[in-house]
Design goal:
The chain has 78 residues and is α+β, with helices and mostly antiparallel strands. The protein has a single domain, classed as 2-Layer Sandwich (Metal Transport, Frataxin, Chain A), CATH 3.30.920. It is built from 2 helices and 3 strands, in the order αβββα. The longest helix is centred in the C-terminal third of the chain and has 23 residues.
Length: 78
């Protein structure tokens, strides 16, 4: 995703990334946007559940995933 945010990413790919990294992904209760957040970081990212997912959503998701992983690694090294 980081190398090619313009690829044809789906919400299934987003779910896989969130599961592998440990981000919380909440499905939409009304509407079509999923909510992604980290228990360690402030803020939330919303991503449309319908295709195509625009590249800026993927870039933001990758940034959130990297920050989440960095926080976990910093906690482990303390």
């Amino acid at each position: 995703m980081k190398a090619n945010p313009r690829a044809d990413w789906t919400i299934a790919n987003v779910k896989t990334l969130c599961r592998n990294v440990g981000l919380k992904l909440t499905p939409p209760t009304s509407g079509s946007h999923y909510k992604v957040h980290s228990e360690f970081l402030n803020g939330m990212l919303t991503i449309p559940g319908r295709r195509p997912i625009k590249p800026f959503y993927i870039r933001d998701l990758v940034g959130l995933a990297e920050a989440h992983k960095q926080h976990i690694e910093a906690m482990r090294s303390e």
